[in-house]
Amino acid sequence: MFTKYDQQFDEMAADPVRRREAIARLTTHRNRMFWLALFIMLLAFMEFWRQRSTGGGAQFGFVATMPLVGLLTLESKLRLLRVIERLHKDREDKKVT
Predict the structure, then answer these.
(1) Could you report the per-residue pLDDT of 6-55, keeping only the tens digit for each?
(2) What total number of domains does the chain contain?
(3) Which residues, 6+ apart, have CB-to-CB distance to 18 below 8 Å?
(4) Are 75 and 34 in contact (CB under 8 A)?
(5) Can you state the percent helix, strand and coil of the chain, rounding each to 5?
(6) Among residues 6, 60, 80, 83, which is most buried (max CB within 10 A)?
């Protein structure tokens, strides 16, 4: 199901230039997603608070979790690429000495 995406990710992670570009791009996306998630959670909380007396507003909790899922996905990809980058750098440092 995700074979094509996995193959593209593997190729990108193996290429040092593309990996560094992806780290920079994902860092920017993660920061934007964080602020978006915070804003949506604030709106959802305000709507829930406004509708608490009528019993409505609970559906906004689900809407508020969706950006958090995206944020966690970006964070996991970013951490993986940073670990690969660190391991690759350590390997190059050992070759030099």
Answers:
(1) 888 888 888 999 999 999 999 999 999 999 989 988 888 887 777 766 66
(2) 1
(3) 11, 12
(4) no
(5) 90, 0, 10
(6) 60
Q: What is the CATH number of the domain that holds 75?
A: 1.10.287
- Whole-model pTM: value is 0.75
Structure tokens at 65: 């979790």
Domain that holds residue 21: 3-96
Residue type, 55: G
Q: How far apart are CA 24 and CA 10, in angstroms?
A: 17
Count of CB atoms within 10 A of residue 61's CB?
A: 13
